[in-house]
Amino acid sequence: MDDLSSPPARSAVSTFFMRLGQRYQSLLDKSTPHAKTRWILAFVNLGLFLARIITVQGWYIVTYALGIYHLNLFIAFLTPKIDPGLDLDSDDHDGPELPTRSNEEFRPFIRRLPEFKFWYAITKSTTIAIVCTFFDVFNVPVFWPILVMYFITLFCITMKRQIKHMIKHRYLPFTHGKPKYNTQFDAVENV
After folding, report:
1. Distance between CA 77 and CA 113 in Å, rounded?
2. CA angle 72, 113, 87 (to 5 degrees)
3. Cα–Cα separations (whole angstroms), residue 170 to 131, 160, 167
4. DSSP code of 2?
5. pLDDT tens, 115-127?
6. What is the mean pLDDT of residues 51-79?
7. Other CB atoms within 10 Å distance of the CB of residue 83
């Protein structure tokens, strides 16, 4: 009679892939604090993809799909996690806004798509696009100037809408380092 309480033995293949996944995750975890290096490598990866597209003169539909995907990622990166335009608890008819005065409640800007996930998605999608350029099935013949014009139009319309949203709800999704406070008090001059 078989003992049903003992777990089944893992095969060598599943153990190999489990360890490979653990090493991959370990590398991702170690790369997290090195944002500049990660983004430099992502742009190098994108440059390799563009160099491949230019040298082989093809795979324009893959390039277009990659551009649309990167645009969607960028919009998610710029958008707050909780959209102020959808907050129905506010008494304001224009929707809630981020605080603009020191006596208002502080609400930090939390992105819909965090920076690390944004980088990871861009790097992974660009790598997949590079791999796609080695298969002729993805080299669909298209008139590429139309795709370029359509992408530019889509980019302009999408960014215009995003910038209007940022102005309406008064938020800026970019910060540079920690805020610096003035520790010196301005002396009042007695005249």
Report:
1. 5
2. 95
3. 41, 15, 5
4. -
5. 999 999 999 999 9
6. 94
7. 13
Q: How far apart are CA 86 and CA 162, in angstroms?
A: 15
List the structure tokens of 92.
Answer: 């304001």
Interatomic CA distance for residues 124 and 20, integer angstroms:
17
Whole-model pTM: value is 0.73
Q: How far apart, in Å, do the first and last CA atoms of the chain sit?
A: 100
Determine the residue type at 99: P
| 81 token code pair | 């996690």
User: CB of 42 within 8 A of CB of 122?
Assistant: yes
Q: What does the H/E/C string look like for 45-105?
A: HHHHHHHHHHHHCCCHHHHHHHHHHHHHHHHHHHCECCCHHHCCCCCCCCCCCCCCCCCCC
One-letter amino acid for residue 17 of the chain: F
20 or 180: whose pLDDT is higher? 20
Tell me if 96 sits within 8 A of 105, measured CB to CB: no
The DSSP bridge partners found for residue 80 are: 111
The dihedral built from the CA positions of residue 121, 123, 129 and 132, taken in this order, carries a sign that is negative
